[in-house]
Structures are given as C-alpha cells and as structure tokens.
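ingest -> validate -> predict -> emit
validate: passed (alphabet ok, no gaps, 322 aa)
predict: started
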Amino acid sequence: MVWEIFLGIVFIMLALDLGVFNKNAHIISHKEAAKWTAFWVSLALAFGGVLYWLFAHEHIDNPLNYTPRTALSKYLQGYLVELSLSIDNIFVIAVIFRSFSVPQKYQHRVLFWGIIGAIVFRALMIFFGIWLIEKIDWITYVFGAFLIYTAIKMAGPHDDSQFDPKNSKIFKAVRKILPVTGSLHGQKLMIRKMGKLFVTPLFVALIVIEFTDILFALDSIPAVLAITEDPFIVFSSNIMAILGLRSMYFFLANVIDKFAYLKYSLMVILIFVGIKMLLHGYLKDNQIEVPEWLSLGVIILSLAGGILYSLYRNKKSEILKN
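emit:
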C-alpha cells in the first residue's frame, strides 16, 4: 500500500506541475527556478519525516530491521548522492538542448516527459540491482570497483562541450526508424502530415536525454545501493532527487561552470561508497558497522567543501581581474 500511495502522490504532483503550474509554455526565470528548487528540496526533506514515521509505526516492510533513525539517515544519504550526481548531468542536458535548438520555453515539457521515463527505467535498474546483490555475493565488489573507477575517471580531462548529440548512435537510430521534421512545431513531440507520422526535434532531444539519464544511472544506482539495499528507500530517494532535477536545471544551467570544484566532491563520495562496498563482506563477517553519522557527514562535508571552495576560487579570480 505504501508503494501505491507514494507513486500516486508522485504522479499527482507531476500532473499538477504540467497541467496547472506549467500548462502554458514559458521561459522559466532564475527566480521562478529558485522557488521551485526550494519547493522540491523541501518536499524531499519533508518526505524524510514521513519515512521516519512509517518505520516508527511499522507501516512499511522492514526486511533489514532498520530503526526509524537509520532509515532516515539512509534516505538522506541516498537523496544527497543522487542529487549531487544528477548535477553532473545538467551540463549535458544543456548541450543537448542547444544542439537541437530547443527554445527555453519548451525545455520544461521535454524534461517533464524525461522524468516519467526516468522513473520507469530507474525502477527497473534498482530492482535488478537489488536482485543481483541478493543472488550473486561477489557483485558488490564489482559495483564497488566500478564506483572507484568512475571517481578516478572524473579526475581526468573531460570536456562535455565537445559532445555532439547529433553524432550519437541514438540520434542516427531514431532518424532511421522515424522521419524527423526539419523544424519545431510548438511544443509538440509528434505531428501527422498527409497521413504520415513525423517526430519533431523535441522528441529526438527527449530520447537522447532519456538514454543519457540511463548512462548516468549506471553510476548513481550502484552508489545508492552501496548505502542501502532497502528497495523503498533506494527508489524513493532516487525519485525525490529526480523530481527536483528540472527546476535545478533552470536554476544552475547558466552558472554550473562556477562550481568547477564540485566534481572533486563527487569523487570523494564515490570513492567512499565504493570502498564501503568493497569492504562489505569483511565488515559483515566481523560485525563492524560504519556509523550512520559518519557516512552522512562525509557526503554533506564533501558537497559543502566543493561548493564553498568553488565560490572562494571564483571570488579570488574576480579580485585578481580587478
């Protein structure tokens, strides 16, 4: 019942978002994006309180015997990890929109349908990941090593501006299967001409974003599974982070380059959870538990450190210029 209520609330919020608050296509200002970002983050934190209550009153399956405090800590860790890794996705989304010449006033609708697809794909990946962990003992080592490899890879040169969606295999595959119109038709994803179905550049941008999200999920899902294997906590923390991604995109898209050192925060977080996964068997056999406050503290301090140092470097650069 809890699953059905949670999904029902999520889809009600999405329906209100598209059908009421953003019914008409418009350019989302920085101020509006800031308000919506604050709303979605507040909603995610409030849900943490609901989760605490559910575990405290035993209204939810608790196969791992979490205390309410432990469940809340796991949720917050999963939410922060997913949210921080999603920020890395924002620049790529901006490149995709720019490549397909999608006006800002239509970008919200594309991201809305992208969220719907992300919910479905994330659910499948989460349950498949949990199934793998339950069935194959050594898969935790694979996940742990993959997270550390991803973190090390972040340290190398990586220029997302060189990414061209129109040269991707996804774009070429869509063009082979469906005819694509040469221009936009408002915010429509598909149109019919002379009895033949055409897709618009908005639809192609949506498909590329969906596949890009799946690639990013290959990092984020194992990272959250390293924190907890409780399916509801993993799923809800993922979805609550994804719901706020659209407003965060409009809030950060133009200033993301000001947080250049945030990637080092992500590296620290991925290495930390990767090591926890590699040591999972050893810690379990020796009945050693990593304190929840330590795990949550590492994530919060890493993110805060990356943000503050980025702002410090930006201010120092401005002083040197003047």
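The chain has one domain: 2-321.
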